[in-house]
Write a structure and sequence with these properties.
By secondary structure, the chain is an alpha/beta fold. It has helices spanning 3-11, 68-71, 114-123, 143-171, 176-203, 206-212, 216-226, 238-253, 275-288, 292-298, 302-308, 336-357, 363-371, 379-386, 394-406, 417-423, and strands spanning 28-32, 35-36, 44-51, 54-65, 83-90, 105-107, 320-322, 325-326. Helix 4 (143-171) packs across helix 12 (336-357), helix 5 (176-203) crosses helix 9 (275-288) and helix 7 (216-226) crosses helix 8. InterPro entries: DUF2851 (IPR021272).
């Protein structure tokens, strides 16, 4: 038994309401359960409860045992003086509130159905569980409820990402182009090199990028040079030497400092994801368009975004993946799958934040956009599919990732709509 189950029971009135009585035998009628408080202070605020013939308005505190009131020193805390009802699982001692009067107490264990407790035990039974607590029963959840919850999950994910974008906006003094530059660096670097690529933005501002974008060699030289990819003295390729010479010039011109940055990693990456390739593709994207932010914000169709992101690399990389080592010829354009990641992880969160700032948020637009993008393929999505939940598009896969990362992996089943439905018998 955990306290969060008692919170769930009270919040959603999952108890026999007709015959509730205090430990002193007085009739209880719940008028308002109150607002669930996740901060310091009583667990539920501004509740209304009728005890006997008296209507009380105030706060409620919930504990596994009545004695927890003293274990947590609530009797010394003024925040708990307005508690009107103590809700516990086991009433093991009398508790005295303000004016040294006994605090009315509801002992929940007498009013909870056996089915709910059995569902709770089944939900948190980790025996033979390989992925998430509800993997054996999640597929039984009504599709209507599941779809509604997934929409909410995706909006939660967008809002969380929006907070990070708002932080970057504050740092950049509301420079949307600078924020886009940071987001693209992180996305082009992916999980392995995202942090290293973002380090580039701390040395070279977007203002400098804009000045360099007209000359692709200059822009590439700065990208490679800042990230320490031009420091090999044994390479004699003409392109490599030209980059080194150009970086020396641009470094002096823009007073680029030798900051300590993470050097990009090549280990465990497919060659197409090597930082050498991704940096050249990003440079060519900026070489292609001066006002990248405004252009991307104006595109309303996913096909237009694909067309706009259709960039390649410097010709050198057609038969190279790393400097000085030739490989089979292959034109290295951004793949559709990689474009999808850019759209999902950078472009849509930025547009969501931008529209929110200018007061034009339309959530339906984002869902419509994402339904045209294929689901991501990763371990989380595969495990959900094995459990009977298949993602067919990007908003569904993003929702499932949010579900796993912020609910399932944290055992927050009682804050999850799916967990709530399973506890209630999927009603």
């Amino acid at each position: 038994m955990k306290e969060d189950l008692l919170h769930f029971i009270w919040k959603y009135k999952k108890l026999g309401l007709d015959n509730l009585v205090t430990t002193d035998g007085e009739q209880i009628e719940i008028i308002k359960t109150g607002t669930h408080n996740h901060l310091a202070g009583p667990d539920f605020l501004n509740a209304q409860v009728k005890i006997g013939q008296q209507l009380w308005a105030g706060n409620l505190e919930i504990h596994l045992k009545s004695s927890d009131w003293y274990a947590h020193s609530h009797e010394k805390d003024s925040n708990y003086q307005n508690v009107i009802l103590h809700v516990v699982w086991d009433h093991d001692t009398e508790v005295f509130g303000s004016a040294n009067m006994p605090l009315p107490t509801l002992e929940l264990r007498h009013f909870i159905s056996k089915n709910l407790l059995a569902n709770y035990q089944n939900l948190f039974d980790r025996r033979n569980v390989k992925f998430i607590n509800c993997e054996k029963s999640i597929s039984a959840v009504d599709q209507f409820h599941l779809d509604n919850w997934m929409e909410r999950l995706y909006l939660e994910r967008l809002r969380r990402k929006s907070k990070e974008i708002e932080r970057l906006l504050k740092i950049s003094q509301n420079n949307w182009e600078q924020v886009l530059f940071v987001l693209l660096l992180k996305s082009f670097g992916s999980n392995i090199n995202g942090e290293a690529f973002v380090g580039l933005s701390k040395v070279v501002s977007f203002k400098t990028v804009r000045k360099l974008r007209g000359n692709i060699l200059s822009l590439e030289s700065v990208f490679y040079g800042v990230l320490k990819l031009l420091e090999n003295d044994t390479i004699t390729d003409e392109y490599f030497l030209a980059l080194r010479e150009e970086y020396t010039y641009q470094k002096s011109k823009f007073n680029i400092q030798d900051e300590v940055v993470l050097k990009p990693d090549f280990f465990k990456l497919r060659p197409v994801n090597f930082p050498t390739i991704r940096l050249s593709q990003l440079a060519h994207l900026y070489h292609k368009e001066d006002r990248l932010f405004s252009t991307l914000m104006d595109l309303e169709d996913v096909g237009q975004v694909y067309e706009f992101l259709n960039v390649s690399t410097h010709p050198y990389w057609i038969d190279h993946y790393t400097f000085g080592k030739q490989s089979a010829k292959r034109v290295k354009k951004l793949s559709k799958n990689f474009m999808d990641l850019l759209i999902v992880n950078a472009i849509i969160p930025l547009k969501f934040t931008y529209l929110k700032v200018i007061g034009k948020t339309d959530n339906d637009e984002f869902f419509s956009f994402l339904t045209k993008i294929k689901s991501e393929k990763n371990t989380i999505i595969s495990n959900f599919e094995n459990a009977g939940i298949k993602a067919t598009n990007a908003w569904q896969s993003q929702s499932l990732i949010e579900l796993y990362q912020n609910y399932c992996s944290k055992n927050e089943c009682l804050q999850c709509k799916i967990g709530s439905l399973l506890l209630s018998g999927n009603d």
